[in-house]
Amino acid sequence: MTTLLQSSAQAAGVDPADMHTALEHAATGGMSPVQALIESGAVDERQFTRHLAENLLWEWVETPQPDPADTAELKRLIPARFAVRHQVFPLGFAGQAQQNNRKLLLACHDPFDLTTKQAVARVSLLPVKWCLTPRSELLGAIQQLYGVGAETFDALIEARGDASADGHLRDEANVIDDEDEDASVVKFVNQIIREALAQKATDIHVEPQPDSLRIRYRIDGFLHEIPVPENIKSLQASVIARIKVMSKLDIAEKRLPQDGRINLMAEGQSIDVRVACIPSVEGESISLRLLGQERFTLDRLGLSPEHREIIEGLLAKPNGIVLVTGPTGSGKSTTLYTFLSQLNSVHRRIVTIEDPVENKLPGIVQIPVKSEIGLTFASGLRSILRGDPNVVMVGEIRDLETAEIAVRASLTGHLVFSTLHTNDALGGITRLIEMGVKPFLVSSSVRAFIAQRLVRCLCSACKSPSRYTREELVKLGFPEAKSKTLYHATPGGCQQCRGTGYAGRIALYEFAIMSNAMQALVSKRASEAEIMAQARKEGFTNIREYGLKKALEGITTLEEVARVTTDELS
């Protein structure tokens, strides 16, 4: 075994000293030499397993996928619990059943794991032909075939006796089993949340369908349906009841919408989960918003040097209003929290009123809106100003009353941050005036309007250069990008980006600063064209132009910029 490992590691470019260290670690740590070598980070897992398969005369499978025609039988021969526990994956069959020489093709990531081979020998009804595959690909294939939490689902069905003689499952109102921790709805729901956190999802949607229970994760702004165990519909009520219990909702109330919260600890990190439960014709649909305790720093915003200088200047102002505009889900709250974090110090009193409080910031007084008892943005802001604040953040300016109080606060020496729902930065001027705020008050109180959108970032591991035709650039709205070096998402992506070609998101910004010239135009009710012309003279760059710069830098694609800035096309 050692000779095979050393030969394969050498072929994969592993330093002999690293190999020796890994073998020693395996011997003292009670783990497999293959596992120790891969976890050491000294070897590329794909190259190593490929060379190891060649030395063993085994077939190497880079991306294990079962034959669709054999899926049902493969699941029966290798149940989910067994596949997850022993980390094996059924690929299909070799040979002819009629000639009694059919074999089960089974993939593993460690050919020297005797415990796994003995377990397979005990349960397999067919001779086994082994294949080798990278561990990361193996675990992804298991989840894809059986569904998230399938091993817990199987155990739950067995423990509760929910399988009838003919193989069909009966529905129950509530089958939460607190006595069997290893086979419970509790663990199944925890696995769904844990997998969402591992995939860096921001939302989980549990949606009843006529014949199934659909679960989707929102990752980088896009929804992805995840595989779920077969017959999960039978435990729909139990899964929903468990989430409602966790979020302290009334499990008996199924006719009205409900809102709740869950506080979780995952890998030492506190996760705040906002839960929204709404009734539908197929049952209750639940959405979970995952809010981690993030660190809000200017570096994370991805600002250009020019924009960062503008922001630092605005934060240094003793008073005035800074408004962040954009649609829902464009990252406005993150930007505002970053501003507050930069200003947060023992010498400043910062108070916010939000609907709801998404992230708890230490050292800052945060007030949640409760309209049912009369605590609105306007009434809350009025009370905040009597509490001697230096900095105030209002979650959103929705009406004239809130806008007027915010203006009065800025004119009396407070620095105010808030949001508006407009398509662009300069549109914020029109929006405030249409609300009923006097133009001279807008010009004298507002320091800047900031518009933003979120776009997906290209995966740095698999992005590739792209050439666009003139027609494609015109269609996207970027004819000026002709002959420029651009990048696109590689179809199928890679392991690092989960096959999407994108990893993470970045904000695109536009800044409209209220200079003296801009203030004069707003005060005399100048047209939008005149205001835009003046802004251009002062170096204004709109979101599409900013996005094009990011595309030329290889950070995102023209398609992403066009997707979120279509309204900006002139």
Describe this structure in words.
With 570 residues, the chain is of the alpha/beta class. 38% of the residues lie in helices and 22% in strands. It is built from 22 helices and 19 strands. The strands form four sheets. The protein has a seven-stranded mixed beta sheet with strand order 13-12-14-15-11-16-19, sandwiched between helices. Strands 7-6-5-10-9-8 form a six-stranded antiparallel beta sheet, covered by helices on one side. Strand 8 and strand 9 form a beta hairpin.
Strand content: 15-25%
* Structural class estimated from helices and strands: alpha/beta
The chain-level mean pLDDT equals 84
Query: What is the general shape?
Result: globular
Please count the beta strands (DSSP E, at least 2 residues each): 19
Helix content: 25-40%
Count, helices: 22
Name the strands of the widest sheet in spatial order.
Answer: 13-12-14-15-11-16-19
- Rg over CA atoms, rounded to whole Å, is 29 Å
- By oligomeric state, this entry counts as single chain
Largest sheet composition: 7 strands, mixed
Q: Whole-Å distance between the termini?
A: 67 Å
Flag low-confidence runs.
162-183
Helix-strand blueprint:
Layout: H1 2-11, H2 16-29, H3 33-39, H4 45-56, E1 59-60, H5 71-77, H6 80-86, E2 89-94, E3 103-108, H7 114-123, E4 128-132, H8 135-146, H9 150-160, H10 185-198, E5 203-208, E6 213-219, E7 222-225, H11 236-246, E8 258-266, E9 269-280, E10 283-292, H12 305-315, E11 320-325, H13 332-343, E12 350-354, E13 365-368, H14 377-385, E14 391-394, H15 400-411, E15 415-420, H16 427-435, H17 439-445, E16 446-458, E17 464-466, H18 470-476, E18 486-488, E19 502-513, H19 516-523, H20 528-537, H21 543-552, H22 558-564
